[in-house]
Structure formats: C-alpha cells, structure tokens
C-alpha cells in the first residue's frame, strides 16, 4: 500500500510537471497535495516498516516528537490544501468567466503560503499538547486500524480519486507513460 501511495502520487506530480496543459491552479494544488500525501504517509509508515523488520516497537522521545511534528504538519497541510482546492472549484463553478482573473498565480502562491501559516499557528500547538498529555500507553486494536486507514489508505486513494476520474489527467498520464516507453 505504501508503494502504491508513493508511486501513484509521484506519477501525478510528474504528469502535471510534464504536461503544460495541466499548469493551472487546480493541478498546482493537486501536485502539492500529492507531495504532501507522500510526506504524510512516509512520516509513520517507514518507522512502522522498520519496527516490523526489527521486531521492536521502541522509539526515542526525540524520535517520537520529531515524528509527531511532521505528522501534524503534513496532516494539517493536507486538510488545508483540500480546503484551497474546494475554493478553487467554487470559483471555477460560480465565477467561470472571471476564474483566470481571480485564481492568478500570485493568489495561488499566497493561498499555499497561508495554508502553511494557518496550520502552524492553529494546529501545531494544540495537537502537540493533546498528544503529550495523552494517558493511554497501549492503543486499542480499533485505534490502530483507524490510524492505518487514515495515514495510509486515504493518501493511497487520493491519486485514484483526483486524477483517474479526470480526462485531462488520464491523457497526461498516458503521454507520460508512452514518452517513457519510447525513450527506452
């Protein structure tokens, strides 16, 4: 599942970079979401895979803090990027004639920067406080399954949800794959 997540999201990023028709605000945010999903999944899954390999569940306090820091950064950024993508679609549907004027490159960059700033100021402190004051030492099996669903399955499905149902993205992926076939 981790490999499907990483490869699927990397393909989205490469297709958007390679196809100039996809250099629009919607795909700019989608490529950032794909990058964030890769980072979000990597913060926990790589440690989990190392734990499975070594048969050890130990983590240092510093390692735990570092993992939680990046987990919360990428989880919050993921949510904010989805919000910005929803705003982009709102503008495209409700103001189609003014879309290119409203969603200019400057505003897209500003929205991305604001996503980072809002996340850092609102969620980082509160999330870290909740995590550090948690009284449960051993999570339940249901909690573990829910964690895997949230951290692995959702980012793995995002490439399918946001790109394979989209004709432009399917065409870009086809061109990317055929370009790679011809160059070999």
Automatic annotation (TrEMBL):
SUPFAM superfamilies: Family A G protein-coupled receptor-like (SSF81321)
Signal peptide as annotated in the record: 1-22
Record keywords, A-Z: Cell membrane, G-protein coupled receptor, Membrane, Receptor, Signal, Transducer, Transmembrane, Transmembrane helix
Subcellular location field: Cell membrane
Broad class of the protein's primary localization: membrane
Topology in the lipid bilayer: Multi-pass membrane protein
MF term (GO), any: G protein-coupled receptor activity
UniProt keyword annotation of Signal present: yes
Annotated TM spans: 68-87, 107-132, 144-164
One GO cellular component term noted in the UniProt record for this chain: plasma membrane
Gene3D superfamilies assigned: 1.10.1220.70, Rhodopsin 7-helix transmembrane proteins
Pfam family, one: 7tm_1
PROSITE patterns: G_PROTEIN_RECEP_F1_1 (PS00237), G_PROTEIN_RECEP_F1_2 (PS50262)
Domain G-protein coupled receptors family 1 profile: 8-118
Task performed by this protein: Putative odorant or sperm cell receptor.
Family in the record: Belongs to the G-protein coupled receptor 1 family.
Name used for this protein in its record: Olfactory receptor 7D4-like
The organism of origin for this protein: Camelus bactrianus
């Amino acid at each position: 599942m981790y490999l499907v997540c990483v490869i699927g999201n990397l393909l989205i990023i490469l297709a958007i970079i390679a196809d100039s028709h996809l250099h629009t605000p919607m795909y700019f945010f989608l490529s950032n979401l794909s990058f964030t999903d890769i980072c979000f999944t990597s913060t926990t899954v790589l440690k989990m895979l190392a734990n499975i390999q070594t048969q050890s569940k130990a983590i240092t306090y510093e390692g735990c803090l570092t993992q939680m820091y990046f987990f919360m950064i990428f989880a919050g950024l993921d949510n904010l990027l989805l919000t910005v993508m929803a705003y982009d679609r709102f503008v495209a549907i409700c103001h189609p004639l003014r879309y290119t004027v409203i969603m200019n490159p400057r505003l897209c960059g500003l929205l991305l920067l604001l996503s980072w700033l809002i996340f850092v100021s609102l969620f980082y402190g509160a999330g870290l406080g909740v995590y550090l004051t948690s009284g449960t030492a051993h999570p339940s099996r249901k909690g573990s399954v829910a964690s895997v669903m949230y951290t692995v399955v959702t980012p793995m499905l995002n490439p399918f949800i946001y790109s394979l149902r989209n004709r432009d993205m399917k065409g870009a992926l086809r061109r990317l794959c055929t370009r790679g076939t011809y160059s070999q």
